[in-house]
Design brief:
single chain, 342 residues, alpha/beta, TIM Barrel, 6-stranded parallel β-sheet, 3-stranded parallel β-sheet, 14 helices, 40% helix, globular
Length: 342
């Protein structure tokens, strides 16, 4: 009996460091709402803390895009410094150390949304050196990187849950300059977030760097909320092919107003991308209307429970992210464009 028990222990797989990640949290905008007790209760051990620099405000009042992002990064660092269990992580190894800790800890990954002011290699170098590890390459409008999704956000939205698809798709894809910037990002290990990008931009990046795992940080299923801003089954299959990740937004204007609608979107994402590729990408920022029952970071545990009931192991998504992150760091551009494995 003892020999059999020892053999079973030796042959069993190493224990997983089961914990969750939020791929898109606007920490600088809602830091007072983020309580470490809530994250610990849900075993959320990684968050992607996103800086957002509004174009007009940044340019006119705060010294430009990069300065505003750096100011928000400093704010995130001050928040993290309040508790020794919180650490800014810059590499997969640092993130994995957080997950392996016997005591609960929180790893914070610095990100920026909208690349309008991160559109030259020197600017990217500045932000990278300051800790930037994920960048949403388009937002409300197209950038030097490439096209943004063709969708109207105001004065009334053209994209609503259960609405009718107007069929608009941006003809703009990854630009010539965007190819150079993407090559630099891939070589550096900067994660490129394709949320808000046009379909053509996403497919262009996938074709240029076929070995790069694709990431969409805060999405909803296009078949349930039809417009280019949400993610299509075709792109979800690209996520699966590339072993990428997709975060499910908790914004009611995309994923519906109830937990049931959230589960429907989660199931649709999982069907085409694979359940192991789906996690939370809340987009909590103090401005969005959240899904009922998912009103803020205090509700992570409830959201994870609902996703698990839909067959999605989002409670193990932090480990999945670390594996994803490692993969992005073994891909580099080939000399004639495209990628090859290191």
């Amino acid at each position: 009996m003892l020999k059999a028990l020892l053999a079973a222990c030796l042959l069993s797989p190493a224990p997983a460091f089961a914990s969750a990640i939020d791929l898109h949290l606007h920490l600088p905008m809602i830091e007072k709402q983020v309580n470490l007790k809530d994250l610990e209760a849900a075993d959320v051990r990684l968050i992607v803390a996103v800086a957002y620099a509004p174009p007009v405000l940044s340019q006119l009042l705060r010294g430009g895009y990069a300065n505003e992002v750096l100011r928000q990064f400093a704010k995130i660092r001050r928040w993290a410094a309040r508790d020794p269990r919180v650490v800014i992580v810059r590499t997969p190894d640092e993130a994995e150390a957080v997950l392996k800790s016997k005591e609960w800890r929180l790893g914070v990954i610095l990100a920026a949304e909208g690349a309008g002011g991160a559109d030259t290699i020197p600017r990217l170098e500045t932000l990278w050196n300051a800790g930037l590890r994920m960048l949403t390459i388009a937002h409300f409008k197209s950038t030097s990187w490439g096209g943004a999704a063709a969708v109207r956000y105001w004065p009334w939205a053209s994209c609503v849950p259960g609405g009718k698809d107007n069929g608009r798709r941006s003809p703009r894809g990854l630009s010539g300059e965007g190819e150079k910037l993407a090559d630099w990002a891939v070589a550096k290990g900067l994660i490129l977030d394709l949320t808000h990008a046009s379909d053509k931009t996403a497919f262009d990046l996938a074709r240029r760097h076929p070995e790069l795992p694709l990431l969409f940080s805060h999405e909803a299923a296009r078949e349930l909320t039809p417009c280019e801003r949400t993610i299509s089954p075709e792109l979800l299959r690209e996520v699966k092919r590339s072993h990428g990740l997709v975060g499910l937004t908790l914004a009611a204007n995309y994923a519906g107003g109830t937990m049931e609608s959230l589960k429907a979107h989660a199931a649709a994402l999982a069907r085409d991308a694979g359940a192991e590729s789906v996690t939370i990408g809340s987009d909590f920022n103090g401005l969005i209307e959240p899904i009922g029952g998912a009103e803020g970071p205090s509700r992570y545990a409830a959201v994870l429970k609902e996703m698990l009931s839909a067959g999605i192991p989002a409670d193990r998504s932090a480990e999945a992210f670390v594996g994803y992150w490692r993969t992005t760091r073994v891909v580099r551009p080939a000399e004639n464009g495209g990628t090859k494995t290191r």
